[in-house]
Amino acid sequence: MWHRLIDWFSDVRERYNIVRDFNRSAKNSFISGQAPTLLEARTTVGDFGFRHAFSKFMAGGFRIKALSGQPLEKKELIEIGKVVLDNEELVRKLVALGWDTLEVHDVKGFNGCKWALKNYAKIGGYIQ
Question: Cα(first)–Cα(last) distance of the chain, in Å?
Fold first, then answer.
């Protein structure tokens, strides 16, 4: 019984580590000039319409905030989201750890985009 409790806490730690590592990498990419926009990730409630069997209650959203100094256009937000969605391994990891929604927002404007992660994880197909 106790090992199940420890496993639950390891999931919480792994979720924390993904957010922390994303933020560290995004900050370093911005500082070095590889990325024109500073990105920051955090966990949010998510979209209840995107829930799946492993969704974390009230913590299913993986939000990326773009700190650009100006409002971003919707196509720019979509481009940021596609970087994550095109990485199948990352999407599968996010789904396995209980995230169900990818959200991308800017800081200045009220623009935002969201995607159901389960639609990008290629779940249910045959292994080739």
Answer: 36
